[in-house]
Specification:
The protein is α+β, with helices and mostly antiparallel strands. It has one domain: 2-Layer Sandwich (BirA Bifunctional Protein, domain 2), CATH 3.30.930. It contains six helices and six strands; from the N terminus they run αβββαββααβαα. The strands form two sheets. Strands 1-4-5-6 form a four-stranded antiparallel beta sheet. A hairpin with a 2-residue loop joins β2 and β3.
Length: about 170
């Protein structure tokens, strides 16, 4: 029956957990009239899109991926840029960042870093799904308050004006 429904164009939801990898995110998105990294500024472009980083960066796709279980993101990561010239171009030319605070990274990449990447799994999200919890806060040992404060670490703490500027943050009034 399900095969006949699918053949007729009707979507049929099959039983069981449904996992999907979400890929081909944009490398950059526009915010307030300028390009910003869609994932982080160290995310590698697709090899076939690398030329776009130099000619039309808003069209480049990233090697950023998310793992989704039944509509809930349970993990995500990316392959990282390992060439110093490409990393410098992304930071300086595309994103307009000062590379001085990251010179140690560019120096390390110039020493011959291999291709590398990473993924972070949200085990707390996965546990919340398995347990049928109403909120992820129900399965976290030390959850944040509803306004995002960590009572155990008394975070967030105040940061300097320079740190607000460095990370392009607006200081709350």
């Amino acid at each position: 029956m399900a095969d006949r429904l699918e053949a007729s164009g009707v979507a049929v939801r099959r039983a069981g957990p449904h996992l999907v990898w979400v890929v081909d995110f944009p490398l950059f998105v526009e915010e307030e009239g300028r390009l910003v990294s869609a994932h982080h500024p160290f995310t590698r472009p697709h090899q076939e899109d690398e030329h776009l980083v130099h000619s039309n960066p808003s069209e480049a796709r990233s090697q950023h991926f998310d793992l989704v279980l039944d509509g809930w993101e349970i993990g995500g990561g990316s392959m990282r840029i390992h060439e110093p010239a490409l990393q410098r171009h992304v930071l300086e030319t595309v994103l307009g960042e000062d590379t001085a605070p990251l010179q140690h990274l560019l120096d390390a990449l110039a020493s011959g870093a291999p291709p590398h990447g990473g993924i972070a799994l949200g085990l707390d999200r996965l546990v919340a799904l398995v347990c049928g919890a109403q909120s992820i806060r129900d399965v976290i040992a030390f959850p944040k308050t509803s306004d995002g404060r960590d009572l155990m670490a008394d975070a967030p703490s105040d940061i300097s004006r320079e740190e607000y500027d460095l990370y392009h943050l607006t200081k709350p009034s």
